[in-house]
Amino acid sequence: MRTIKLLVLTISLLFASTVFAQKFEELALTPPMGWNSWNTFACNVSEDMIKEMADAIVESGMRDAGYEYVVIDDCWQIGRDSLGFIIVDPERFPSGMKALADYVHSKDLKFGIYSCAGIKTCAGRPGSRGHEYQDAYTYAQWGVDYLKYDWCFTEDQNAKASYRLMSEKLREAGHPIVFSLCEWGTYKPWEWAKEIGHLWRTTGDIYACFDCVEDHGTWKSWGTMQILDMQDGLREYAGPGHWNDPDMLEVGVGSLTDNENRAHFSMWAMLAAPLIAGNDLRNMTEEVRKVLTNADVISVNQDALGIQALKYKADNGLETWFKPLENGKWAVCFLNRNTEPVKLNFDWAANIVNDEFAKRIFDSNKTTYTMKNVWTGKKEGSTKKTLSTEIPGRDVLMLILNED
Ligand code: GLA
Fold first, then answer.
1. Which residue from 335, 386, 331 is spatially nearest to 360, judged by alpha carbons?
2. Active site residue 211
3. Where are the domains positioned within the chain?
4. Among 43, 122, 222, 248, which residue has the most ligand 1 atoms within 8 Å of its CB, making it the best to mutate?
5. Which position among 73, 135, 150, 355 bears the catalytic label?
6. How many C-beta atoms lie closer than 10 Å to residue 39's C-beta?
7. What are phi and psi of 284, to 5 degrees?
8. Cα(36) to centroid of ligand 1, in Å?
């Protein structure tokens, strides 16, 4: 049986190497949306939990809101057999990955998995180094639609070469797959990964706090505001099919408050970031569910132009961001990073935004816009009048502007 498997693998490898190798195009034309196990469960993954999460994505309305990929992060794998095939933890995944992928697919969702370019994963499980085609082939057999590919234990490996290698092997294995690069921005993947993958992490790991740095001794993880600041200068690298990834959402994780959740989610939407939830969907509060499924905020994130927002102003912890949208629309987000409320007086006419990258100019002296507050659902009048309001601490005022 194993010999036959190896024979099939060898034949398909020979055949596949004649295929022109590049990433699968036409995938992730808008930022990928889904759920990943890491932020809440770390290594505590199992087939029961993943199935329950797939059920919860459907029951909570998240699938209908656009969440699509159910991704198992690290720790599903425990070794390799004598032929080098990856071994799935039989205690935690007794039915095997194919059965689990089938279950996820039966819910009209897509299935994702995790591996690493190095010899081991970050949690010390077997990595894909030296087994790239074998793993890609295995994922294709299982029907895996999304691969997150990490960067631990890579020693002197070249990042671009390592990621290109896996991208080619995925392509050769033949099953369309979103390829998510996770080398933390170390070698500036935004400069070279557009042809290789569909999204790339721009930073180290996110931490479930609004504004803090968590020191782990040899490495640090970052609060939402720290990660936000690290996106400076990257907007021109993102677009349909290739996204900057400021890491997965911490909405509903840890001690983030309702307004912090809202601000975090709004900013990830503005950044055209992948929206990969990381909370326990089986028992989230209604407030968290409402944040994650807000259709207007998601529409800003999923806008077909795929343009990341421009940070227009930053003044004493109050930031103003503009995101050009389709059909002449704009999303505008005022972010109050302070713990105290701030007064906002924004005279639209006095703020002409020339977005050279997007080749769009916002000038309310020439075009009047009507405004919708995406969090209250209310109309807020038009840009003819100065916007005067107060923004609570660590919260946002996020608007969609339509040409009148
Ligand atoms: C790295 C990644 C995380 C997660 C863990 C798993 O730290 O950046 O997102 O995948 O590895 O071990």
1. 331
2. no
3. 2-301, 310-403
4. 122
5. 150
6. 25
7. -75, 155
8. 11
pLDDT in tens, the chain (404 residues): 555 665 555 555 555 544 455 899 999 999 999 999 999 999 999 999 999 999 999 999 999 999 999 999 999 999 999 999 999 999 999 999 999 999 999 999 999 999 999 999 999 999 999 999 999 999 999 999 999 999 999 999 999 999 999 999 999 999 999 999 999 999 999 999 999 999 999 999 999 999 999 999 999 999 999 999 999 999 999 999 999 999 999 999 999 999 999 999 999 999 999 999 999 999 999 999 999 999 999 999 999 999 999 999 999 999 999 999 999 999 999 999 999 999 999 999 999 999 999 999 999 999 999 999 999 999 999 999 999 999 999 999 999 999 99
- The closest residue, in CA terms, to atom 11 on ligand 1 is 122
For ligand 1, the distance from its centroid to the CA atom of residue 150, given in whole angstroms, is: 7
Fold classification of 310-403 is Immunoglobulin-like (2.60.40)
Q: Which two tokens stand for residue 245?
A: 């990834």
- Can 145 be counted among the known catalytic residues? no
- For 233, phi then psi, to 5°, come to 85, 0
The values of phi and psi at residue 211, to 5°, are -145, 85
Pocket of ligand 1 (CB under 6 A): 38, 73-74, 121-123, 150, 182, 205
Q: Distance from the CA of 396 to the center of ligand 1, in angstroms?
A: 29
Domain at 2-301: CATH code: 3.20.20.70
